Amino acid sequence: MVRVKDFIRRFEQFAPQYLAESGDPVGMQLGSTEQTIHRVLVTLDVRPEVVKEAIAKKIDFIFAHHPVIFRPAKNLVTDDPQNAMYAELLRHHIAVYAAHTNLDSANGGMNDWLAQQLQLKNVQILQPNYQRKIKKLATYVPEANANGMRQALAAAGAGQLGDYSAASFSYAGTGRFTPNAGAKPFIGQIDQAEAVAETKVEVVFPEALTNAVLAAMFQTHPYEEPAYDLFTLDNASGEQFGIGRVGEPQQAMTIREFAKFTQDAFAVQGLRLVTQHPDELVKRVAVLGGDGGKFYPAVLHQQANVFVTGDVYYHTAHDMLAAGLSAIDPGHHIESIVKSKAVPLFQEWARVAGWNDVTFMASALSTDPFTFIV
Ligand SMILES: [Zn+2]
């Protein structure tokens, strides 16, 4: 039996909520995390027609990129179409979870999917926003318990270094203590100074695993009062996260040619090109899903001459032109790539986790509000 919370636990290893921009209402939005799930619908937007589709397809969990509740509801009067939609979801026991800017910044997430679709090479993060810290734990155990401790810490995920796992360092020493009245010592007696041959076991791990690693240490440690040191390292080896991607085109193209290539890559009816140099060659391309215009200074900083993003404002377009930057706006709806990319990813997680009775499917609807008249 798979519950919403099981899915969330797996998903947030991939796109933790702390990667989201502040104020972005990501995470569980509607329904209960305790609900069991069998049929999951992946969608860019939760709109009334998507809710109808979900009901028809007997969906019990919707995974959406855009939060369904973006502005707080002031009332729950169902004459309002937005509120009526919440009521329909609750009435049909459809839980909704949203992964927005945390999915944008996740490695292998939204912006990597868009960069892949544009066939960019040498892809890097456009604007880093988070460096995962590395922690080190040292604990002191009787020699006979050292092996068990090393195994428990490795099982909790500590000691992953590149292509190596279960990495640790141990050295021998002497632990000294005097159990006082009330203590129930594993070794030694009340009021008698004790000296024990101990092993110091050291491991490193990403900070996100801190709770799991500490829990494993406490569970495995034989002592009533385990001695341990926990610290944060300044090593810059933690995983880097950030919004947007920048890379080079697969082959030499002018900006006009690249605009056409972008249109085909995302199969959009039309797009807007902001440029004063359509025949200049594309050097580097930045891509950022959604409404990314405000990030154009980061694009200039990364020395890209083309920026692919949605919802570019009139005045921002002027600013980009004045700065010598060209922009391609294929619309916000290119983020519907979430449907074709997230479904196989979730299916793979389900296979590994043995979630045999959960089916993941993409919404069959387009939620693009815009059409082009040509
Ligand atoms: Zn978006």
From TrEMBL:
InterPro entries, A to Z: DUF34/NIF3, DUF34/NIF3_bac, DUF34/NIF3_sf, N-reg_PII/ATP_PRibTrfase_C
DNA repair keyword on record: no
Pfam families (alphabetical): DUF34_NIF3
Keywords: Metal-binding
Quaternary structure note: Homohexamer.
PANTHER family associated with the record: GTP CYCLOHYDROLASE 1 TYPE 2 HOMOLOG, NGG1 INTERACTING FACTOR 3
Family note: Belongs to the GTP cyclohydrolase I type 2/NIF3 family.
Name listed for the protein in its UniProt record: GTP cyclohydrolase 1 type 2 homolog
